[in-house]
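Sample 1 of the test manifest.
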Amino acid sequence: MKLLRRLGTAAFVLAALAAGQAVVSAEPNLNHALRPFPVAGEVGAEVAARTFTARVQLVRCAAALRIGEHVLDTQGVWIVAKLRVGARFKPTSIAYAAARDGAGKVYQTSDRVSLDLVSGGLTMQPGLPYEGEIAIEVPTASAGSLTLLLADNSLDQRMDSMAEIRLPISDGSACSAEPTTLLAPKAVS
Amino acid sequence: MLADVSVTGQGGLSRRLTRGLLDQVTPGLRWAVAVVLLGVSGLFGGLDTVPEPPAETVAAGTPVHGGPWEVTVEAAAVYRELGKLRLEKETNRWLVVTATVRITAHESTMPPSDLLTLTGVAGLINPTPAEEALDRDKSIMRRLQPDMPERILFIWEQSGDAPVPTSITVAVEQRTYREDSLSGAWYWMDVDGKGEDEPAGRVTVPVRTDLAPPIASPSPSVAASPSTSPKPAANRTPSAGPTP
């Protein structure tokens, strides 16, 4: 009887430990639990994140960028997106822009070129949107499965809204071989 | 087994008494035995921290996986002049290690300044490189993209009073993806949390001294960020922003 009681106690403890482990394993880790809140949209449609709005107007890709007298090549391709962005309720900046491919790899905007529109360098006032182009270098094989990610915090995007806009590029190998230029940000009415 | 042993060897009463005594004593006895075993083990080093095995030393051209990056050290060379970089003393020299860095993490990563360290080289002005530049256009290395390998020039300044090395050993820093004990979030961090990890690997590479400077005459049409000073400068990144 005593032995049975002890076995029962041990079984109960093991069951409690297993249940605890199952609860802990339900989320991959804390990063996943604190992930950004996606606000999805398509090219041509305005996406409203918590502090800003964004619309991808056009997308193209090229083998190189021409910035002034400089030509920036890449071992992949440059994805160029024309954006219209604006602050919603108070002066704000977009300080994070990246492209996520179908495998979940995230390519941030290159710091080989200065992109004021999405690097936090441009503070937008509500009601005064800006248009301009940004560029992200990605592997050629990833170009056909990209989603643009935009957020207002460059360091920590957790637990905040993030604009996610699918980029309709069908084939990275069909990108222009000629260097392309970028439109600098400008205020639009 | 123990409960069957009789102290007196006489009758059921003594057997029951013995069993009762052992039932009382056994749990404490187990703990005592465990503590004694641990103590004995400790005397012979059983509780010592086990040191990490020394990093493997490989030949140039062999990839070394350091967690969020994979580094292939390819060559090393010494130069008296290097484009527009300026030595602290004219008698010093540049020591350049060429390596291909591939980001294996799932997102863009800025490698640390001590990604590569040199051992066995006398007279380094600074243990971390004075400059880290992309070989493709000689612009400053900053953020690298996943699965887009870049050949990087890691540049140290060495005192002219020190001997020119014939070969050097390059240590590749490593990180591990682990939970931050403070926040509970997961990051690429030092393996031991103290920054005293063994490197992911060491690479021995011969040093050449008979080469033409790699960035003596950057082509204006190719060089995205001409190397004009030893440190990153604001005007070294082409701008697509509005003109002030």
